[in-house]
Amino acid sequence: MSASKKKKNDFLVQGSILAAASIISRFIGLLYRIPVMNIIGKSGMAYYGNAFEIYNIVLILSSFSLPLSVSKLVSARNEKKEYINSYRIFLCSMVFAIVSGILFTLLLYFGADAYASFVLKQPSTAIPLRVLAPTIFISAVMGVLRGFFQGKKTMIPTALSQLIEQIINAVVSIAASYLLMKQYSASPDIEAYGAAGSTLGTCTGAFVALVFLMFIYFAYKPTIRKQLGRDKSNYYEPYKQIFTLLIITIIPVILSQTVYQISGVIDGALYGNIMAGKGIAGKIRDDMYGEYTGYYKTLTNLPIAIASAMASSLVPSIVSAHERKDTKDLHEKINSSIHFNMIIAFPCAIGLSVLAKPILQLIFPKATNLAVGLLMTGSISIIFFTLSTVSNGVLQGINQMKVPVINSGISVALHVVIVFVALKVFNMGTYGLVLGNVTFALVVSALNWISIKKHLNYKQEIKKTFIIPGISSIIMGVVTWLVYQGIYLLTHRNTISTVISILIAIIVYFILLLLLKGVDEEDLYSFPLGRTILRLAMKFNLL
User: What is the pTM of this model?
Assistant: First the structure.
């Protein structure tokens, strides 16, 4: 393999390591939600979902931007071999994380009642929200450690910490939900206490993951000392300047991610108030919203985790190419990342739509036809959220930090109008939330790609990236539906029919992708496990 191919392969492999960990983590999350939902019920999931919407916003304001910002700044200085400046950025980021983490933890804890009562019209949400509050501080410190390692272009510490975090989360969530529901069985807020048990799992998992990352950091300390000793730069950035630079880098990321997350909070507030105004009982409202957040959002977010992981890996690589002013390498990395993500996003979107009912019956037996309809109509959002996530990473990597903020702001303004009209005028209920979810990501994607073309003079390849994966996925969807119906007719077993259908779908999709030349030999070399796939493709004359 040539040097350029090897470089591209390293970038995709690092992203794939993180993507694999993210998918496994999300899958664990999906599995443990089954017993948790059975324990706390749909109303409990509504409390849990609403608590997480505001928690995620506070997390973004305090620390969510830290991994990306730290990795971006550390990567830029490592590229110049300014290891002392790189380490100074790490130290300043840690101080920032500790201070902001404490402040926002206190804000979330003491403001939980006001938010739950006056914004959501759901006072019981305050119970799981207060339990979540300490996670803000833990995540802030953990975010700096993850960003530091990502800036060194290794995703392994982040990947392993994610797996540990989710395993602990799963065990504690199930146990705590059960025990708290049992302890507060006579309370009118029993479901809220059950939701608090699940949020306790989130907090505990984050704490254990932080301890693991600290262990890795101290094990890596001798290597850091050697790097500091090799630093030949004559200029060391003052701490005051670093803090200023850190804030300048963090604020656009915070604003961009806040706008993304605030769309979910707006959805919850609009839905709760408009449905209440229409006279729909609180219990029915909560159950319907719980189907949207607990089933639809959970399943569609699973494949989007791949895009988030690839974006985390993409930013340091984009920064390095941008620092070197290597336009060719920069364009290759963008093209590879988008191509790789679309190859995954299209079949996931079509597959979830075609097998919506069987998958929901398999994973969430209590899901109703409403959840099936939401997933069938809204799974296309996977494509647009994947594209918007990766394009955000590109813009942030080339120092166009404010552009994603502006684009997301425009999109959320349209989102509010669309959701309000869908709920108020057309009485679409939770389908209105799905419509808003899809259009929000679509608008962000379109605006981001206009911006990338403007700033980089970059033109995305269309046929291999979008058209062929789209056609292959549609044909795969038809074959998958027919296979499921045939096997179910013979066995009358949903589990067997679903699992076999998914396996056949994967095989059919990749055969079509190869036959239609959606990937070539060079692409396969640069993909994870590419050589193995290439050997199989050659053996069966698919290339």
Answer: 0.76
